Structures are given as structure tokens and as C-alpha cells.
Amino acid sequence: MHSLFLKLMSRSFKLIGLAVSFSPTTLAMVAEAARLVKWFQSDLVLIHVGKKDSEKTEAMQKLMDGSGVEPTRIKIFWVEGEPAEQILKVCNGEKIDLLVAGALKKENLVNHYLGTVARKIMRKAKCSIWMITDPSVDLKPLKNIVVDAESNSMQDIITLACYLANKERGTWVHVVRELKLLGLALSARDQCTEAEYDELQKNMVHEETSVVQKMLERIPHQHSKINIKLLSGKSGFELAQFAKRKSADLLIINASQRKFSFFDRIFTHDQEYIFSDLPCNLLIVQSPRKA
């Protein structure tokens, strides 16, 4: 395997956490988490918020036995209190790298302002998060992965997308960059002809595409089909709409580098567009923990 993939596996998701609610989707969520454990050669932490009793203990044991994960690689936490707070507390205490959780595709107005457990976790988690909108025991292949390449760690996030695509084979990886045309329009409006403006725009598109193409030369993606897409406009909104148009199975974004406030819910932050109406499964990638 290519050294970049080995480097990614060694530093990314060594420990995967899963919030277990014993709901009708629990079996499917365990199956989804077990697939990631296999892909990343990780250990698994199961977290249940609620009182521990004999019935739940037996149910948890059945989940472990049916997961396909070696028992020695599974750790269980029983905690009580406010769900989001307790889940995040375990994540921080155990230094979980990736938390797997269920999410609503579309939130109603009340949930948008008060915040569901999933939304609270997405805003406050210090680890990466894999939000699953439609979990299934019959695991669905990742046929279309959309990755937002708008950060300083662009190479890492594209490498991660290609690694996941390599596990599925034949997967499309749509690398999305934002084409910032407003500044170009304002600076060129009174200084060049329409033909010159078109040439400037064409050069801009070429430069942005070349950045990704040169990066892909260093990233193994022989089993993936690559599409480089330049979007203009409100990046969070446009990104979500693009993921919908491509019937994406997974959207990968970098975590916001600042805390979300109440005003982000009113004057919508880019990522809030995605949170409030998830187009598909969502992977929010945090920067690797410092040793």
C-alpha cells in the first residue's frame, strides 16, 4: 500500500466511538461502525447514556458478538446524564478519534433552534464525526464521495476520500473547490473588456483545477474516478446542493476552526446549511491530535 495511505491510517482513526441507544436502528449503526473499524484497523468504544441493567447488559453483549469486531478491541461505557454532554465527555476522556452517530436528514424549526443531540455533538466535538442519515445492516457501498477541498489540510482530506474510495473500488470522488468570482468581478468591472474578463475567468478556473490535479499526482487513486468541480456562491449551501445532485453517499468536510454561536443559527454559517438539511452521510474531519 502507498506510504501516504499508511501514514493516514497510522495517525487518523485509531479509536472509533459509537453512541448506542438500543433503538430500532442500533443493529445497523453497529454494522456501520464495524465497517469503519475494519477499514481503519481501529478499536471500538461503545457508549450508552442511561442506567445499566441486566436487560441492557445482555443486549450489549449480543451487539458485541454480532459486530464481527474482536472482543478485545471493544470497550463499553455506561454513563448517565445529558446525552450530548456525556457522549462528548467520554470522547474527550478516551481520546476518541472518530465518533459515529445517527442524524436526522431534515430538522424541524424547533430542533434547528434548540438543537438535537446530533447537532450539539457536531458543534462541540473535538474529534472527527461520521454522521449517518440512513443506517442499514445491509451496508451500502460508497459510490459517490464529495469532498470539500477548501482548507489548509486539503491534501489530507483528499487523501482520506481516496482511501475510502479505494476500499469500495470504482467510486467517484468529487473534489469541490470554491471559485471566488466576486473579487474578480469587482476588480475587473471597469478595467477590462468582456473578452478580457472571460479570459481572466478561464485562467482562474485553470489555476484552481491545476492545484488539485498536481495534488492528485501525489495521492494514490487508481481505483477511483475523479471529478474536480468548481462552485461559486455561498459555499456551504452550494456544497450541499452539489452533493444532492450527485446522489452522494458521503460528504467530507473539515471541522470549523471556531466555535459555533447562537448567531450562527440565525445568520447562517456555511456549515449550518449542511447541518440543518443533511444531503447524505457526513464526515466532519478534525485536525489530528497532537501527541
Keywords:
291 residues, Rossmann fold, 2 domains, ten-stranded mixed sheet, 45% helix
Share of helical residues: 40-55%
For the biggest sheet, the summary is: 10 strands, mixed
CATH topology of the largest domain: Rossmann fold
Structural class: alpha/beta
Layout of SSEs?
Layout: H1 3-11, E1 15-19, H2 26-40, E2 43-49, H3 54-67, E3 74-79, H4 83-94, E4 98-102, H5 109-114, H6 117-124, E5 128-132, E6 144-148, H7 154-168, E7 171-178, H8 181-188, H9 194-216, E8 224-231, H10 235-245, E9 250-254, H11 263-266, H12 270-276, E10 281-285
Parallel strand pairs: 1-2, 1-4, 2-3, 4-5, 6-7, 6-9, 7-8, 9-10
Antiparallel strand pairs: 5-10
Helix pairs in contact: 4-6, 10-12
Question: Could you explain how this protein is built, in words?
Answer:
The protein is an alpha/beta fold. It folds into 2 domains: 135 residues, 3-Layer(aba) Sandwich (Rossmann fold); 139 residues, Rossmann fold, CATH 3.40.50.620. Helices cover 45% and strands 20% of the residues. Helix 2 links the parallel strand 1 and strand 2. Helix 4 runs parallel beside helix 6 and helix 10 runs parallel beside helix 12.
Brief digest:
The protein has 291 residues and is of the alpha/beta class. It has helices spanning 3-11, 26-40, 54-67, 83-94, 109-114, 117-124, 154-168, 181-188, 194-216, 235-245, 263-266, 270-276, and strands at 15-19, 43-49, 74-79, 98-102, 128-132, 144-148, 171-178, 224-231, 250-254, 281-285.
